[in-house]
Amino acid sequence: MSTDHDRVSAGRPQGRRPGASSSRQTILDAARSRFARDGYAGSTIRKIADDAAVDASLVMQFFGTKEQLFAAVMSITPGALARMAEAFDGPTDTLGERVTRAYLGVWEGDPRDSEPLLAMLRAAISNEQASAQVREFVQERLLDARGSRLNNDTDMTLRAGIAASMLVGVIVGRRIVQVPALVNEDLEALIARIAPGIHAILTAQPELRQR
């Protein structure tokens, strides 16, 4: 957590510097990278200010607290959300492959999306707000994005949660824990291995599950 020492960086003039808009974005970019690298607990206002080459008091002026800065960093681009929603459009027989590709692709693609998501995962270990953000982003995105053909499936909440857990688990192993077998695997090969399991969970028929 941030401390009083985070509020002041020695040797830098305090207060706003010219170009408030660009300064704010510079701080956000620095915070995104720092949270992705060190997680919530390991990041401080002072470190982020140093990364952005600004005084810590400027960070506080823009965002107030580390928690508020973290919340601001967690914005995901509209394009990423659209790709995940669109994964549910199309033939049922390729649903698992599309969803797996869309979700893993976001975590592996544009740093504007992947870095905030990795920051959420690292922070979720020690911060309840981050845990809630991970749950909301992954599971609720699966539920909200599902096609109309799945809307009447009363078991979908549980199945979406299972699928979400599998996808998050792969990312944790590949990007955070860095299990060698996952790190060294080509993304396309990884998608090919995971997609059948995600497909089976998302499309399972009730009568099969009750046997």
Summarize the structure.
The chain is an all-alpha fold and 211 residues long. The chain has helices at 20-42, 45-52, 56-63, 66-73, 78-86, 95-108, 111-124, 128-145, 156-176, 180-183, 187-203, 206-209. The protein is 70% helix and 0% strand.
Explain this structure.
It is a single chain. With 211 residues, the protein is mainly alpha-helical. Helix content is 70%, strand content 0%. It is built from 12 helices and no strands. It has helices at 20-42, 45-52, 56-63, 66-73, 78-86, 95-108, 111-124, 128-145, 156-176, 180-183, 187-203, 206-209. Helix 6 crosses helix 11, helix 7 (111-124) crosses helix 8 (128-145) and helix 9 runs antiparallel to helix 11 (187-203). Residues 4-18 and 205-211 have low confidence and may be disordered.
Estimated helix fraction: over 70%
Class by alpha and beta content: mainly alpha
Q: What is the CATH C-level name of the largest domain?
A: Mainly Alpha
Strand and helix order: HHHHHHHHHHHH
Strand content: under 5%
Oligomer: single chain
End-to-end Cα distance: 50 Å
User: How many strands appear in the DSSP assignment?
Assistant: 0
Output mean pLDDT: 79
Rg from C-alpha positions?
A: 20 Å
**Main beta sheet strand tally, sense and closure:** none
**Uncertain segments:** 4-18, 205-211
The CATH architecture category of the largest domain equals Orthogonal Bundle
Structural shape: elongated
Could you tell me the CATH topology label of the largest domain: Tetracycline Repressor, domain 2
Given the structure, what is the number of helices? 12
Number of domains: 2
Under CATH, the homologous superfamily of the largest domain reads Tetracycline Repressor, domain 2
